[in-house]
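Q:
Just now I want nothing more than another pair of eyes on a protein record. Here is the record:
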Amino acid sequence: MPNRSTVSRLFTRKDALDQTRLVRQEEYLDAVEGEIVLRLDLFSLTTNNITYAAFGDSMRYWQFFPTGEDDWGHMPVWGFADVLDSKVEGIAAGERFYGYFPIASHVRMQPERITPRGFYDGAEHRRTLTSAYNQYTRCSWDSYYSPATEALQILLKPLFLTSSMLADFLEDNELFGARQVVFSSASSKTAYGTAACLGRQPGRQLLAITSARNLDIVEGLGCYQQSCSYDQLESLASDQPTLYVDFSGDLALRERVHRHFGASLVYSCFAGSAQTPEANALGCAVGPQPEFFFAPVQIRKRNAEWGPEQVGRHIGEGLLDFYQQVSRPPRPWLRVEEGQGYEAARQLITALFHGRVAADEGHVIRL
């Protein structure tokens, strides 16, 4: 007998990201040949979701899960979903997968390139999109997966890949001769993830600049040797070879950093979230021209040198170590908050959009 149920989808207004609406409709949930139906269980919502949504059209963010409505998008999130029904050989009902999902009760996918690791969604509209976002990992395969760390995984793993590869890129180039590394937006998870990776080698001076309201949080992390607010930037010592890692994308701040460190600035790295940054985002009037860091480039280099298995082990082991660091009592770097249902998701999207979520909070939603 056909399985019919209510499917819920949370849409976001593209030009007003704090406006959402819940769409419900009765649908058949049986898979057809070559298809699986998944039920979303747990997902994260972070500032990155808002940042990517703001660049939605240029980054093709809204194309992963089209709504059919020009003004409304279906926000993608990192999460876990269980297979409700499968008509695909090699994927069974009840299996749990990690990956990129829409905020919805159910989603249909057309798996291809199926391996013990997982599959890629072969839906026609996703074939020209970034393949990393089309890959779904089977939890039973992932030796670094644990039910106890699911919340940390969906909050940190997508960002830690950049952190790990950025730290590796900088170490691969011997920090370009720098003796101190300066991070902007130092309270961001990607920034302090990079600092945590670089801090494994003792003796490095890692300096944080952040907003005044996040200064106490950043100082409490313990992964930076010195911290200051943005208006205190000029108090930092400028007589040492310095490397600037820009997580803020603030052009005026970057000019201040370049002017302050002057001839001591040996390298300027833009580690922003945009995959194809605007040309003017990489310009600077003083000092070395900023270089954009794109993690897949370093991954390709290491895949060729180390092999994919070793690259996966490098990232996986680093991630487990990072979980321990961010959770360590008495003052964990990240406080995980779990909300329930679509109304919690709606309120959280609004709070993130208006900057009302503390830097040391990590929010997940369970449906």
In short: The chain is about 30% helix and 30% strand. The radius of gyration is 21 Å. The longest helix spans residues 150-172.
